[in-house]
Amino acid sequence: MKIAIYGVSRSGKNYLIDKLMPLLAGKSYHIEGSQTLKQLSVEKFGCRFEELSEADKDHLRKEFTKLIQNKEEEYGVVLVDGHYSFIAPTGYNIVFTSEDLHAYDVFFYLDTPTNRIVENSRNSGDELKNTTITEADIQNWKEFEISQMTEICSENNKRFEVLGKHTDQSIRQILKYALEMNNREKITKHIH
């Protein structure tokens, strides 16, 4: 089972996944989406992902999809944190691709309270720190992503759920889905 957890930057996707992993009884693996693509870029091409040609980016995305499939075979459940877009000077830079759409069984969107995201952005280190982002910026960004992902997933028969505003609630939502899928797989195997 391949589970994508999306959300704006600094929404706590990794924090949620870290809390979720022990509850999946060692049968899960976490792939940090952006970090892994950046690492693959340096390893394969010796430069940053952003500096690659579109052809090389597509190549790495395909490699990334294979990595997800391999980890699913090895662990059973793969959790990947992802980004649909980033704020750009003229709107949003959409980074979600058809590779992303087809790589996962389900998409969850972490709808962290806006004020917490602003606080996390201001307290981040290095290039992740953003002292100018406002609650309105974050709210608009979240609404844009949720709207876009709802439409794309609906058009492509992909399950999409917006997670609750509290970590415990989000964990319950994901575990409920994982249990449903596990039971469905057992029933399907039993029938065949």
Write a brief caption for the model.
This protein is an alpha/beta fold.
Structural summary, described in words:
There is one protein chain. This protein is α/β, with parallel strands linked by helices and 192 residues long. Helices cover 55% and strands 18% of the residues. It has seven helices and seven strands. The protein has helices spanning 13-20, 33-45, 54-75, 98-103, 114-123, 135-155, 167-191, and strands spanning 2-6, 28-32, 77-82, 85-88, 91-94, 106-110, 159-163. The strands form two sheets. It has a five-stranded parallel beta sheet, with helices on both faces. It has a two-stranded antiparallel sheet with strand order 4-5. α2 (33-45) crosses α3. The two termini are 19 Å apart. Residues 187-192 have low confidence and may be disordered.
List the helices and strands and how they pair.
Blueprint: E1 2-6, H1 13-20, E2 28-32, H2 33-45, H3 54-75, E3 77-82, E4 85-88, E5 91-94, H4 98-103, E6 106-110, H5 114-123, H6 135-155, E7 159-163, H7 167-191
Parallel strand pairs: 1-3, 1-6, 2-3, 6-7
Antiparallel strand pairs: 4-5
Helix pairs in contact: 2-3, 5-6
Instruction: Work out the number of β strands.
Output: 7
- In N-to-C order, the SSE pattern is EHEHHEEEHEHHEH
Distance between the first and last residues' Cα: 19 Å
Shape: globular
Radius of gyration, rounded?
A: 17 Å
* SSE-based structural type: alpha/beta
Task: Note poorly predicted spans.
Answer: 187-192
Q: Give, in spatial order, the strands making up the sheet with the most strands.
A: 2-3-1-6-7
Summarize the main sheet. Answer: 5 strands, parallel
